[in-house]
Design brief:
By secondary structure, this protein is mainly β. Helices cover about 0% and strands about 50% of the residues. It contains no helices and eleven strands. The strands form two sheets. Strands 2, 4, 5, 6, 9, 10 and 11 form a seven-stranded mixed beta sheet that branches.
């Protein structure tokens, strides 16, 4: 059973940077498509970025393009979310997600992913 464990969250000032990590265990990491979602208080969980398995491409929600980067280290079984130029509205609990399915145009749907981390808080102060 694969497990996903996030780390790297915390408090940062607006304009600052954070890098989230998600370590995967239990299965072949390269077989998983991975994604990051986030959820703010009172709002639904929303898609942030995704990485298709085996170098199949990356996707981003429009409002994080040019600020966030998703990447993977296959040797470490880890997916990262590099977040730059952070804004107070980026404050949320960030979740790592994964699936063995081949993701297509549905990459942004939370229901596509069947493995989830516990979530990690990111707070951006103004």
């Amino acid at each position: 059973q694969v497990q996903l464990v996030e780390s790297g969250g915390g408090l940062v000032q607006a304009g600052g940077s954070l890098r989230l990590s998600c370590a995967a265990s239990g299965r072949t990491f390269s077989s998983f498509s991975m994604a990051w979602f986030r959820q703010s208080p009172g709002k639904e969980r929303m898609f942030v970025a995704a990485s298709r398995r085996s170098g199949g491409g990356t996707y981003y929600v429009d409002f994080v393009k040019d600020r966030f980067t998703i990447s993977r280290d296959y040797a470490k079984n880890t997916v990262y979310l590099e977040m730059n130029s952070l804004k107070p509205e980026d404050t949320a609990v960030y979740y790592c997600a994964g699936t063995l399915r081949t993701i297509g145009s549905d990459y942004y749907l939370s229901g596509v992913y069947d493995r989830w981390g516990q979530g990690i808080q990111v707070t951006v102060s103004s």
